[in-house]
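Action item from last meeting closed. Structure (242 res):
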């Protein structure tokens, strides 16, 4: 567990991130990592003097296995899990469209691809227990949770993919809308958009990037890679060259 900025902590691995926002003695968790990472969250909370009972909710950028993996276990421990309305069927396991990238779609000849796969397999990415129920939010909602995150719907990676903006702290949690790590390569710090094969609708991803350029923030925390110090507009400019 690493403190990125006061009251915001990062967990996960070298290949994926999830986050804890604290406010007083309560917390909001952004994303639910992979299926074996519940103990990692508990240990991280303990390190800052909190426990699972102090978590008001887990809010999920999107329901891929490396972002909602321990959501079911969290619910069994009494935590609330929330997703965008258009992400509900993915979270419940009833979605009928393109679920996620498969290993056969990856460049398996690249050593970095195997590093990515092995790291996430170790923490349970191959297992994604569906949720029995889930609460939902919509674009523009300001959630009554620690940090008061505002929902910024950024579809494309999935239909309900959402970023979360802490307006008072000027911090944006971008999920997989824009990242700083090439999961198939060695570029771990440069702003970039994931390869099209990762996305449900690459054209929609481009539209969502345009939307992010209008968000006011000084720090962007992606689902994969290191934090970006600067505005979402600058991050997008560096990622796509405009």
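Sequence:
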């Amino acid at each position: 567990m690493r403190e990125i900025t006061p009251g915001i902590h990062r967990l996960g691995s070298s290949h994926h991130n999830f986050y804890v926002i604290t406010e007083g003695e309560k917390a909001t968790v952004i994303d639910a990592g992979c299926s074996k990472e519940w103990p990692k969250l508990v240990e991280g909370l303990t390190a800052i003097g909190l426990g699972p009972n102090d978590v008001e909710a887990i809010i999920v950028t999107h329901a891929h296995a490396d972002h909602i993996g321990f959501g079911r276990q969290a619910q069994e421990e009494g935590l609330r899990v929330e997703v965008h309305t258009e992400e509900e069927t993915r979270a419940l396991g009833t979605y009928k469209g393109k679920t996620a990238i498969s290993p056969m779609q990856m460049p398996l000849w690249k050593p970095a691809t195997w590093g990515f796969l092995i790291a996430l397999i170790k923490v349970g990415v191959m297992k994604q227990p569906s949720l029995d129920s889930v609460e939902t939010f919509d674009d523009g909602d300001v959630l009554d949770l620690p940090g008061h995150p505002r929902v910024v719907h950024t579809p494309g990676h999935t239909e309900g993919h959402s970023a979360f903006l802490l307006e008072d702290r000027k911090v944006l949690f971008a999920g997989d809308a824009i990242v700083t790590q090439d999961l198939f390569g060695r570029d771990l710090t440069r702003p970039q958009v994931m390869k099209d094969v990762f996305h449900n609708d690459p054209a929609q991803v481009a539209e969502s990037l345009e939307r992010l350029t209008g968000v006011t923030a000084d720090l962007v925390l992606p689902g994969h890679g290191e934090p970006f110090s600067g505005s979402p507009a600058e991050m997008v400019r560096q990622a796509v060259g405009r």
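Note appended to the action item: Residues 111-122 form the longest helix (12 residues).
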